[in-house]
């Protein structure tokens, strides 16, 4: 792909497809945050929202999770998406706002998935046996992570030579080519 506008559209198309297609590559991005004890922390999350016009993405978390504590301390994060069919990587630098207990968002969470937001003991607590954890879904533990896009880097490996582009908020989203 040699057209920056088309590459931008392709990237957003991947993100938007994840909202309706459970098999879409962007449905399960990796979220990387600054760890509480130094280093980085990364985990797979579910993409719950993608708003191209607002340059905003949304994922959800348990308010008692380590990722919630990490983002409360440092809201800078990166989402990473890999599309094997297109041989395309998206690296999205975001600033994350935390929105707890929103009734509209809670209603949109499927009943079965609500178990992820609440539970005893809280996420990350050591257990003697997996049966020692008990689901207790509660709206106050549901946290929307509102991810405002700061930069979008696209690496396209299918193209020969490989192509890499960077779009940044500070430049009004005017993309530019960078060395792969």
Automatic annotation (TrEMBL):
Q: Which domain of life is it from?
A: Bacteria
A Pfam entry, by short name: Pyridox_oxase_2
- Write down the InterPro entries for this protein, in alphabetical order: Pyridox_Oxase_Alr4036_FMN-bd (IPR024624), Split_barrel_FMN-bd (IPR012349)
Q: Tell me, what is one Gene Ontology molecular-function annotation carried by this entry? A: FMN binding
Name all Pyridoxamine 5'-phosphate oxidase Alr4036 family FMN-binding domain ranges: 14-93
Q: Under what name is this protein listed?
A: Pyridoxamine 5'-phosphate oxidase family protein
Q: Which organism is it from?
A: Mangrovicoccus algicola
Which taxonomic lineage does the organism of this UniProt entry have?
Answer: Bacteria, Pseudomonadati, Pseudomonadota, Alphaproteobacteria, Rhodobacterales
């Amino acid at each position: 792909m040699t057209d920056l506008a088309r590459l931008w559209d392709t990237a957003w198309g991947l993100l938007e497809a994840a909202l309706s297609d459970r098999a879409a590559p962007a449905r399960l991005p990796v979220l990387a945050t600054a760890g509480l004890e130094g280093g980085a922390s990364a985990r797979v999350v579910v993409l719950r929202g993608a708003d191209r016009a607002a340059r905003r993405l949304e994922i959800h978390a348990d308010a008692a999770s380590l990722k919630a504590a990490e983002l409360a301390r440092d809201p800078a994060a990166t989402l990473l998406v890999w599309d094997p069919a297109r041989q395309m990587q998206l690296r999205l630098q975001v600033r994350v706002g935390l929105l707890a207990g929103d009734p509209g968002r809670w209603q949109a969470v499927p009943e079965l998935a609500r178990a992820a937001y609440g539970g005893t003991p809280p996420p990350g607590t050591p257990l003697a046996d997996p049966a020692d954890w008990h689901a207790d879904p509660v709206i106050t533990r549901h946290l929307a992570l509102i991810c405002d896009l700061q930069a979008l880097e696209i690496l396209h490996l299918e193209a020969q030579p490989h192509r890499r582009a960077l779009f940044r908020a500070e430049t009004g989203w005017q993309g530019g080519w960078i060395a792969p």
